[in-house]
Write a structure and sequence with these properties.
Elements: H1 15-42, H2 60-77, H3 82-105, H4 118-148, H5 160-197, H6 204-207, H7 214-232, H8 239-258, H9 264-291
Helix pairs in contact: 1-2, 2-3, 2-5, 3-4, 3-8, 3-9, 4-9, 5-7, 7-8, 8-9
C-alpha cells in the first residue's frame, strides 16, 4: 500500500512469538555459560577472561539476548514515534551499563582501599550511572506520556507529507531488521571465533565485549537518524522540530562515542547523552507551549 496505508507494518514477525524465542534463548545461553564456567573451574578449559571467572558473570549472557530484543523493539517503534524511538536508545545504553555491572561482579575485589582499586572504582561508577540513567529515563517518559502516548498507536496521518514520512520510517525499519540481524550474527560469530582462536585469552579485543555489535549498531543508528532528520524537512520546517531532531542525532552520537573510551569518561558520555536528549525534549515542549501548539 501507499504512504497512507499501514499494512506494510504487518510484515513484522509476531511480537509474542519473538518474546518467547528470546526468553528461551536467554535461558539456554545462561545454562551454557554456567557450564563453561564449571569447565573452567574444573580445569577442562584454561582462560583468564573475567567473563568466565564467576557464576555471577553468567548473567551477562542472557542480558545480551534481552538487549537484542530491545533493538527489535527500537525498530518497532521507529515508524510510530520519534520520541519513543529515541527513548528505546536510552533504554538500550542503560541495559548495556547494567550488563557491564554483572560482568564486572566476577572481578570485584572487596578490599579496604576500595577507591584505589581500578576495577572496584569502575564498578562504583557503573552503579551510580545506572541509577542516574534510570531516573533520567523515568523523567524522559514522564514528560511525554500525557501528550504522546497516542503516538504508539498507528493512526492515519494528518497530511500527505506526514504520511510519506511515516511510510519512509516503516520502510527503513523493515530494511534494518535483516541488516541488524545479520550484524548480530556476524558480531557474535566473529567474537566466538576470536575466543577459540586465542584459547580464551583475555587480550583487549576479547575483554571489551561490551563493544561487540553495539558499537556498529549505534553507527547505523546515526546514519538512520541523519537520514530521518533530512527527510523531516519535507513535511516540517518548524525551527523547534528541526532543533529537536538535530539534538536527538547529537544524543545518539554521544552514545556512539562512549564505546570508544573506558573508565569514568565512558560513564560521563552515556549520562550526558540521555541528559542532553531530555533537555532537548523539555525545551521543545516549552517552545511549543509558547506557540500554543501543544496538542
Amino acid at each position: 500500500m501507499g504512504p497512507q496505508g499501514t499494512s506494510i507494518f504487518t510484515l513484522w514477525p509476531n511480537q509474542k512469538q519473538n518474546e518467547r524465542l528470546v526468553l528461551s534463548l536467554a535461558i539456554l545461553s545462561y545454562i551454557i555459560h554456567l557450564l563453561i564456567i564449571a569447565f573452567v573451574k574444573a580445569g577442562v578449559i584454561q582462560t583468564n577472561l573475567g567473563l568466565f571467572n564467576s557464576p555471577i558473570s553468567a548473567i551477562y549472557t542472557p542480558f545480551s539476548f534481552i538487549l537484542v530484543y530491545e533493538v527489535y523493539l527500537l525498530l518497532f517503534y521507529l515508524p510510530k514515534s520519534t520520541t519513543f524511538y529515541i527513548g528505546k536508545q536510552y533504554e538500550i545504553i542503560t541495559l548495556i551499563v547494567i550488563r557491564r555491572i554483572f560482568k564486572d561482579l566476577g572481578d570485584l575485589q572487596l578490599v579496604p582501599d576500595w577507591f584505589q582499586n581500578k576495577k572496584d572504582l569502575q564498578f562504583t561508577f557503573d552503579v551510580v550511572s545506572a541509577l542516574i540513567l534510570f531516573y533520567l529515563i523515568y523523567v524522559f517518559y514522564h514528560r511525554i506520556i500525557k501528550r504522546q502516548v497516542a503516538a504508539i498507536v498507528d493512526v492515519s496521518p494528518v497530511s500527505e507529507a506526514a504520511g510519506r514520512f511515516i511510510f519512509l520510517k516503516k520502510a527503513i525499519s523493515l530494511f534494518l531488521l535483516p541488516v541488524l540481524l545479520g550484524l548480530a550474527c556476524y558480531s557474535l560469530g566473529n567474537w566466538i571465533n576470536l575466543l577459540f582462536a586465542n584459547q580464551f585469552s583475555a587480550f583487549a579485543a576479547l575483554a571489551n565485549v561490551n563493544t561487540v555489535f553495539f558499537d556498529d549498531f549505534f553507527t547505523i543508528l546515526i546514519i538512520v537518524d541523519v537520514l530521518l532528520l533530512l527527510a523531516s524537512f519535507y513535511y516540517s520546517d518548524q525551527f523547534h522540530i528541526i532543533i529537536r531532531n538535530s539534538g536527538f542525532v547529537l544524543s545518539t552520537i554521544l552514545i556512539k562515542l562512549s564505546f570508544s573510551v573506558i573508565g569514568p569518561v565512558n560513564n560521563i558520555l552515556v549520562v550526558s547523552s540521555v541528559l542532553f536528549g531530555l533537555l532537548i525534549l523539555y525545551i521543545t515542549q516549552l517552545y511549543e507551549k509558547s506557540l500554543g501548539t501543544v496538542r
